[in-house]
Design goal:
About 45% of the residues lie in helices and about 20% in strands. It is α+β, with helices and mostly antiparallel strands. The protein has two domains: about 160 residues, Jelly Rolls; about 120 residues, Arc Repressor Mutant, subunit A. It is elongated and about 80 Å long.
Length: about 300
């Protein structure tokens, strides 16, 4: 990666931090002497940049240029970068998972869903948040360029841990600030489920996966799940299950309906799985629900 960008060799084979500063009134291309490149890395990356033009394609979606933006990428993802021009400063951290061995981050990093968001789901920072993140980048940079000793790695990882904690906090703030966008996404989510059900796709193809629904919405499945959780307090899987249960209530009360037929119509391969889910969500079995409704 350093060779591709004409940067000096990294000081650590498993960890790198880059910083480029553009003078006021100037802009720079972060791609040096090549206009377009496709990169597939086997490491994590975190970048903070102010993009003013160009195009990034990541996760099948294009990045909508904005300022004060953090982008996180996971290993084995492909990013296509085309004629990117940035202003102000560019910070870029890359690290291999092996660098985290022996540190709590080795397991903790798996819980940060934003490493698997699409690029158009980047984190947009307020000026105050951006300055805080830059200060952490600078702390990492200072330690990285010191003569590394037995303390260096733990200090760098402590700062990295703090950076990820703040990113997690700011993403949650972003979800709250984008309530209307969240509501619109959840409305589209339910509409896709309605269309899927009405076209008998449940019976023909089975219960849709979170990945399939996210693809229909044009977002990453991690981002969709986190957005729905922020909006409703329930995961995307929970919402799918609740949808199935609500449709089941209606189907079960139709004349001559059977529990097995209802289960198959809703995409369940085995009726007992359907009955188990129904009882968990409703508090009674499908048979008890039908009997209770007939009594009322």
């Amino acid at each position: 990666m350093h060779e591709q960008g004409n940067f000096p060799p990294p000081e650590n084979p498993l960890f790198s931090i880059l910083h480029e500063k553009v003078e006021d009134g100037q802009t720079a291309s972060c791609e040096k002497d090549f206009e377009s490149v496709s990169l597939t890395n086997n490491f994590y990356t975190i970048s903070l940049k102010n993009i003013i033009s160009g195009e990034i394609l990541y996760g099948r979606t294009k990045y909508d240029c904005s300022t004060g933006t953090m982008i996180f990428t996971a290993p084995n993802q492909t990013m296509v970068i085309n004629q990117i021009v940035f202003s102000s400063e560019l910070y870029y951290i890359s690290f291999h998972k092996e660098y985290l061995i022996g540190h709590p981050l080795f397991d903790k990093i798996k819980k940060y869903n934003f490493f698997n968001y699409n690029v158009n789901e980047a984190l947009h920072l307020s000026p105050k948040e951006e300055e805080l993140i830059k200060s952490i980048f600078r702390n990492i940079q200072t330690e990285y360029h010191n003569n590394q000793d037995e303390f260096s790695k733990n200090l760098i990882l402590s700062h990295l841990d703090a950076l990820l904690h703040y990113a997690d906090r700011f993403y949650k703030r972003q979800f709250l600030n984008r309530k209307e966008i969240n509501q619109a996404l959840f409305t589209r989510f339910k509409h896709i489920l309605d269309m899927y059900f009405e076209a008998n796709q449940l019976e023909e193809k089975g219960i849709p996966t979170v990945e399939w629904l996210a693809n229909q919405l044009g977002v990453s499945h991690r981002y969709m799940s986190d957005t729905i959780k922020a909006e409703t307090g329930k995961t995307a899987v929970d919402q799918i299950n609740l949808y199935l249960v609500e449709e089941a209530k209606n189907l079960l009360l139709k004349p001559n309906a059977s529990i097995s037929e209802t289960a198959y119509k809703l995409g369940f391969e085995y009726p007992q799985y359907f009955s188990r889910l129904f009882k968990k969500k409703v508090g009674m079995s499908p048979k008890q629900y039908v009997e209770s409704s007939m009594m009322n």
